[in-house]
Each structure stands twice: as C-alpha cells, then as structure tokens.
Specification:
The chain contains four helices and six strands; from the N terminus they run E-H-E-E-E-H-E-H-E-H. It has about 160 residues and is an alpha/beta fold. The protein is globular. It starts with 10 loop residues before the first strand and ends with a helix.
C-alpha cells in the first residue's frame, strides 16, 4: 500500500504474576487483550511467576508463555522463584535478544523485569497496577505493608527506564 510505513517487529518480554492458562481462562483480562494485540505485530514472550500454578511452557494468543508455578510463596521463600524467572529471562534474552522487558506490577514482576533488563542491557518498563504504593493495615491491603514488598517495589521503580 502506497504511503504505509513498514512495522518494526519488536521482541517484547512481559513479566506478570499470572496469565491465562488457556483460552477459556480469564486470568487478568487486560493482559490477555494486551498480549493478543501486541502479538499481532511483534514477538511476545510472557513470563508468569505465580499462575498457572504449575511449571510449563505453552503458546496462547500468538505469544509464547513460560509459567513458573510460584503459587503463594511469600517472604524469603519467594527468592528461588524470582531467581528461576530471572535466569530464564536472561538466558532467553541472550539467545534471542529482547528490545524491551515490561513488568506488570512494580513488586515481583517489575523487579524481575528491571534486573533482567539491566543484565541484558535493554530498557525496562514497569507498570503500577494496583496496591504497590499502598499500605492500608486495617484492610490488610498494599505491597507497602511488607518489608520485602517495599524493597522489591523501590528497586524496580529505581531500575526501570520508564514507569
């Protein structure tokens, strides 16, 4: 078509706490839609830390998905999960370099994306998605209620190129 600019195909890594296990699973609908749209023109890999609750790789909505099955591990017990995800992203990024890593939620996913991006020397984007900056003790809500949550969030926001 005359006048149309060619689309630059990017390699995008998305890091999230959860992603749909199959087409019938409506886990985090906004991410389903975003990944589907991005994968129309770009190569997308989704790294999901906690859900689905089992370790596996699969393809969905045109994207490659790597699930780490972290379920509800908290505190220091989450470190092996974050380290496994970081190692996988860095290894994949060395084999097939990413153009950008995007962490959805500034705590665990943002931290993993930002630290992996720094190692791979690519930009990291971290999106705040809810309670990462909140501390509402009377409701038991907010990432800022835990020391590790505060630390992960602070570091991911500091290391990200764009928030």
């Amino acid at each position: 078509m005359r006048g149309a600019r060619p689309v630059l195909r990017l390699r995008i890594a998305v890091v999230t706490p959860g992603f749909s296990a199959d087409e019938e699973d409506w886990c985090i609908p906004v991410l389903r839609h975003l990944v589907r749209e991005l994968a129309r023109e770009h190569e997308v890999t989704v790294y999901t830390l906690r859900y689905p609750h089992h370790v596996r790789s699969y393809h969905l909505f045109g994207a490659r998905v790597r699930a780490f099955g972290g379920a509800a591990r908290g505190g220091l017990r989450r470190l092996p999960l974050l380290l496994r995800a970081w190692r996988a992203i860095v290894a994949d990024g060395r084999r097939w370099p990413y153009d950008v890593l995007h962490g959805f939620w500034a705590d665990e996913p943002g931290f993993v994306a930002a630290v992996a991006a720094r190692r791979l020397r690519v930009p990291a984007v971290v999106s705040l998605m809810g309670g990462e900056l909140a501390a509402l003790p009377q409701l038991g809500y907010g990432t800022q209620l835990s020391r590790s949550g505060r630390w992960l969030t602070r570091l991911s926001l500091r290391l990200a190129r764009t928030v």
